[in-house]
Amino acid sequence: MKTYPIVAGNWKMHKTPNEGILFVKKTVNMLLDIQKVTIIFSPPFTTLFELDVEAPFYLGAQNCHWESQGAFTGEISPEMLVDCGVEFVIVGHSERRHVFHESDEWINNKVHAVLNAKMKSILCIGETLEDRESNQTKSILSSQLSKGLNGIKSLENIVLAYEPVWAIGTGKTASIEQIEEAHQLIRSELQKDFSTEESQNVSILYGGSVKDDNARELISIEGVDGFLIGGASLKAESFTAIARNVEQQMKETI
Ligand code: PEP
Fold first, then answer.
1. Are 44 and 14 in contact, with CB atoms under 8 Å apart?
2. Which one-letter DSSP state was computed for residue 234?
3. Can you give the pLDDT at residue 3?
4. Nearest CA to ligand 1 atom 2
5. Active-site residue flag, 14
6. Which residue positions in the chain have pLDDT lower than 50?
7. CA 231 / ligand 1 centre spacing (Å)
8. Residue 36 has what pLDDT?
9. Which of 93, 127, 189, 247 is catalytic?
């Protein structure tokens, strides 16, 4: 069964704990009537540990290590996140892949660790502009997908995010056709390793310059089950407007 669409904010390295607490309070108050959308706040760790929210609001982490504990200076384990009420962990974000050079193997370790800790993994995949211009989009997406999900037996606690790297933080959104094609490709690739039912029902988010003024159009694309949002998740007005657009679309399609 399909779950409610997801609107996930990725704050990246923004907001102090005090700013974050005020922001979440304001945003939750603005969205008290939301019923058909799952809303995720993914602040930096320092803020995450100060927050406490209730459904339909959830806490997401932007990263974690795959080991439970040990000599890993600067890292946070899945168990530490669970203890702070975190339910979703973003894994393989393009900044982790391209700025911090995380390998597919590390990303796969993280997906396993997140699931073992009984959280949900938001696995991000996406091609660079160079990949797209050299017709590598399909092979990059299938490779990131199969390597990221290597050894995973069920999609039950997996959320995928298609995030073309060239659309992240650039103001450039992928076209409707590009998004539809990528989401279809992801579902058909998943069918090689998972049941048709799981592949059809898994949530695939789109991320890349989603704003309040394009959210309505983007959420109506076939196969798009919500958004992962960077810049526009930092302002209560734009983030809540996106959530409202998604809720409206849900109400109209049921
Ligand atoms: C992101 O960081 O995942 C993202 C999609 O950023 P933005 O919305 O700013 O493009």
1. yes
2. S
3. 87
4. 230
5. no
6. none
7. 6
8. 93
9. 93
CB 117 within 8 A of CB 80: no
Q: What DSSP string runs through 7-68?
A: EEEE--S---HHHHHHHHHHHHHHTTT--S-EEEEE--HHHHTT----TTEEEEES---SSS
Annotation says 163 is catalytic = yes
Return the residue matching tokens 């209560």. 236
pLDDT of residue 254: 65
| Tally of residues, the chain | 254
- Distance between the two ends of the chain, CA-based, in angstroms? 14
Is the shortest distance between the CB of 231 and ligand 1 below 6 Å? yes
pLDDT digits (tens, 9 = 90+) for 184-224: 999 999 999 999 999 999 999 999 999 999 999 999 999 99
Q: Is the CB of 126 under 6 A from ligand 1?
A: no
CA distance 98 to 102: 7
Residue with CA at minimum distance from ligand 1 atom 6: 230
Superfamily of domain 6-253: Aldolase class I (3.20.20.70)
Amino acid at 250: M
Domain limits, the chain: 6-253
